[in-house]
What does this fold into?
Amino acid sequence: LPLSSSSTQLWKLERIYEISRFESFNIDGTYIRHETDGDIVIGSEFTSLPLKDSQWRVISGLADSSYISLESVNKPGYYLRHKDGKLQLSLNDGTTLMKADATWKLKAGLADSTKISLESYNIAGNYIRHYNGVLHISAISTTLEKKDATFIQIKQ
It folds into this structure.
């Protein structure tokens, strides 16, 4: 962003994170969201659930700054992570495992290269995908799995 200056100050406005929502590629109107119990699901925007449950701060990766991590907007300090193959919302406890589980590689969409897919940082070849409304990480091979692992990033 441009610099502003005056005779007494010089400042630069810089955005340190962006807020995004992630819409399912193959189920219109459903977004990656967290539930109150910490489960990560895809949910419709036409429910009574708060919009902020589907909003994420996209920040530098906790384990590697060349990747990303997704922090909940309405639960600061809680991140989208995988554990035992399932996605959940977890408080950053500062451990190496937590940081690695909550770090993702933003890649061109597996079903549509103009969209995005999120590959696990510490389990290469495993991607976030939805199955029966719940989000998991898994290896992807079929056409349906590729669609389930592709999302539309909506920057806000």
Remarks:
- Residues 96-101 form the longest helix (6 residues).
